Queue: 3 jobs
Job 1
Amino acid sequence: MVKIGNIQLPEFPLLLAPMEDVSDPPFRAVCKDNGADLMYTEFISSEGLIRDAIKSRKKLDIFEYERPVGIQIFGGDEESLAMAARIVEVTNPDLLDINFGCPVKKVALKGAGAGVLKDIDLMVRLTSAVVKSTSLPVTVKTRLGWDDNTKNIEEVAERLQDVGIKALAIHGRTRTQMYKGEADWTLIGKVKNNPRIHIPIFGNGDIDSPEKAVEYKNRYGVDGIMIGRAAIGYPWIFNEIKHFVKTGTHLPSPTIQDRVAVARKHLYKSVEWKNPVVGINEMRRHYTNYLKGLPNIKEYRGKLVTLKTVEEIDEVLNEIERVYAGHQFEKTPIELIDYHQNCPVN
């Protein structure tokens, strides 16, 4: 068992990464169905919460079926983060996560997200302020460092543990790398194997197959893995990894019926949580991923991204299921797409 404060997770848990414009309740619902052990909200601006910004407040929505679930906040000011933490606590998540990983300019260059990696003392002060302001378990998501010359994650891990965080998730890239090149898990392994570290350490970056998950589990000894981009359009990855860890064998690939059923549930949840117009519009980005690998799918995809009612979309999904019945999907590595210019995997 892995424990984060009073939260009990299974041995070698699989976490759904917080992804801006992706990890909303509809997406989390289908990932939970398919084996995610712990999930996080999209990251939420501490300043937005304090200003009572509608978009920020909406991101606080969590549901009982999601638990355990964490709310992630970001910011660069101690007082604002502490106040945001108190607002978050009222919504009763299982934990509160601080984002020190998002590399995009509009966040990092304002001294938040990965921008805090340039000032470790500030990172420690911000974290301490949050820990002191809430009774929730506090965790952190971060990167190896700002650039190749400042890979200070070992110092960061020790100091954040000392001020009270209960777990640390590390993305194996620096801020300057953004999402380019391979994630380097070597330093993640060093943090995990540091005798001073006693909190759970979760690795993140480039896990796109059950084989790679098991390889990294064995090589680096992490307590669990956080999965982001590989789950977009393919929530089955969680159960596939679990099955492979346990048995060394693969689950069958999801069928066209499986894919359509998950796309349909995602659509229904999206419409229910947002409203028909917004829910249908925001769902359009997901169809390509759910239907990846189908020959001559362009015509159907064109319909799915232009239709305006659930009933019409349902008809097209039914037709896709009928036309492609029996289609065999090959087991190929999941493409790690750069999903959004914001923070696909922070």
Job 2
Amino acid sequence: MRTSGTNLDFITFSIYLALVGIGWAMIYTVGYGQGGYSGDFFSFLKTSAGKQLIWVAVAMGVFVVSFAIDSKFWQTFSSIIYAACLLSLVAVLIFGKTIKGATSWFDFGAGITLQPSEFMKFGTCVALAGYLSSYANNLRSLKTQLYSIGIFALPMLLILLQPDAGSAMVFLAFFVVLYREGFPGWVFALGFSVATIFVLGLVHPTSYIILALAAICIFILAWNQEKRLYWLAGFGLLVAVAFFAIGKGYLFYTVLGSAAVILGLYVWHFYKRKVSLANVVVVAFIVGSILSYTAHFTFNNFLKPHQQERIQVWLQPSKADPQGAAYNLNHSKMAIGAGGLLGKGYLEGNFTQGHFVPEQITDFIFCAIGEEQGFLGVIIIIGLYLALLFRIVYIAERQKSDFNRLFAYGVASVLFIHFFINIAMTMGLMPIIGIPLPFLSKGGSSLIGFTIMIAVLLKLDASRG
């Protein structure tokens, strides 16, 4: 649905306004627990809710200006916008303010700070769309693939230097854009496999990871035989023997035996001239084993104690200090669970009003919704985000311009990774990496950055012809 006067996509705009409004209301309720809001309006503006109200007003102005700019401007000056955003990331490393160990903000005084990484997401959206939409570029070309990855890998590197691993991780979302445009699918499968092995290797003994990899490899090689049933029966017997040996304390010899079995199967495949699959399996086993050892070694020798604690909170919460690293997560889950079906009511949440969850107006705003609005409120919020994402994808697919489509997918990808990781980390399903929930979390940089994305997207759509 588009209004006749401005060609603005009213559905998308309405969802955006709803999320912004709900976000401010939840920031208000978190601050309400400090004894309410007393004094005049100017005193209120000094509170978290008051400051966010100012940012909301600024965001509305930014939306109007961004929407008013000619749609061709964004593609024409995409490289300049990207370069300016990159320079801001370099500048913040030199002139920025360090907060909680990360030099990520420009401090303009009077409590006004800006985080350039939030605007870099928009800059990367237009730059990647501008590059891939040019006539000469084809994602089947290795040069184009590497250049495209470099467009979002460079800001990732600069953000990691701050250091802000959470914000840097968001830029991996642009792989979704590449996949939509024909980037090879096997690369994503490989990346997911590597990431899984590395994550598991962080906190689990290397020997067990190697045994698991060996079991997968042996199963694949056994499945590839002519008399498959007999080979699979042998695989089952081998697994039983391995469990018995591990139970008796022969873990090291079990690992050696598994490696020997893989070597024997490789020789058999070589004899049967089925070496192609065997080569892939053996290389995968060797690389995976090395990767798991590297991850475990890195965790124990290079990560700082607080970084180790964050990983343990995610992967091994029972081993984390409930009054230390696990405090936020435990109270976040308790707050969400306390809401029940319908919630305790607006301004009535015990955890929310009592400030038992640190960083609740930023990273953990979702648990305030869970406590005060309950399961129903959570479903509504998730529904709004999903509706926004589906609407953006719908807008992307109806574009005649490649630039418009690519930009829309970039916006959808960044929104999705923020939405998914933030909500998942408040429930312990993802590590706590400190990224905001779009439009809901307190923060002017995040709100304005996402507002520009939505405004430009709607402008491109309104001018699609």
Job 3
Amino acid sequence: MVALVRAMQTGGWATPVLVLANDPDAGGLSKARDMGVPTAAVDHRDFKGDRAAFEAALTDALEAVRPDILCLAGFMRVLTADFVQRWNGRILNIHPSLLPKYKGLHTHARALEAGDTLHGCTVHEVTPALDDGPILGQAVLEIGSKDTPDTLAARVLPLEHMLYHRVLKRFVSGDKSLLSLRDVNFD
């Protein structure tokens, strides 16, 4: 989130209008406020067993600021088809694997267990199916012989920070073509 906000603020190609979290104690909220971005929280725990009410509260918070695009960054809640359809074609997500491999959780461990030699991250459009939307960008790294799930996660994270805002900038301008590591200068 911080990398996205910083890129938008310094580049001027988009304006962050809200950072919305599902946990009122999320560290990103204070970081966003420090960056001058309005914040809100809709605590999912207040809606236990009622996803429709939780998503209605999310929608109310979002509609109050009328965003053009929603960027999921560390939002670890599965969104229903109804919510996704409401924002169809306007939600992006970053996922720590080379989709379509390893949808869901524990991607780094799964890549290691499979004996993969390459790993990375993917920015995709969100659809009702989990981690299944059109792929807009990927960044790839080689898995080292001494990598663990934790070291691999630490190595993928900077790629996520570099890739996501580049894909978002293109998406804002209407470019949905695939952006890959070879197309990006990560210096």
